[in-house]
Specification:
about 15% strand; Helix Hairpins; Chitinase A, domain 3; alpha/beta
Amino acid sequence: MDKPDLSLEEAALAFLTSLPAEERKEKQQEVNRFVLWYGKERRISQITPVAVASYADSVGTAGGDAARRLEPVRALLTYAKKEKFIRSSLAPHLRIKQAPSKTAAPAKPKQQTALTADDYAQLKSQLASLTEDRIRVAEEMRIAAADKDFRENAPLHAARERRDHIEARMQEIQATIANGVIVEAGKPAESLTVKLGCRVVLRDLASGKELTYTLVTKNEADPLNGKISIISPLGKALLNQTRGASVKVVAPARELRYQIERIE
């Protein structure tokens, strides 16, 4: 008799239930972490070697004792193969890549993103909200999947699209947080040089017109309201400059020159 096509959550529950109480307690946290990472409603039979290797990479880059964290997941995959929930052995793909040798070319550093404390808090709040949305969508998918006529199951298809959108946005936010650097916006009154949070009054050296901009992070940028990112061409040119300095920005049509009149 064929084994039922279990969800990853159901397979994980079966695995943990098969363990002695003490061993179950030791393995449960890491098993649950893997289930949430992959998606608890997804079929365990659909897990691919690439997905397993990707999870191992994510654990390896997170630091700590990666081998110890991967051991419960390896045990879950071994159990799944033994119980014929999966056809091929996936446990061997759950390995940590070896660190490059000293003679290897240095890895290109990841581009960091400047974040204020408010940016960071907002991103964490969005991530928590999306996590709740994903749980609700998973329940919608479970209910929709109860209709065995998958050919015309519009609610199921719509729920899957929402899930994919949510997961894509969650990955984007997680990457921003992982590569983010918390910066402190200085008090403008105490600023002697242009930095994040400063309000800068410029004079266009070609027209004589005064322009006012506030330097903000990428997430807060709103050029129409005078808020420019510190990673924009003008933001980069102004950063760390002092009052009276002249700055140059190369635009597609022409070269722009400004003089810093005031830093507020």
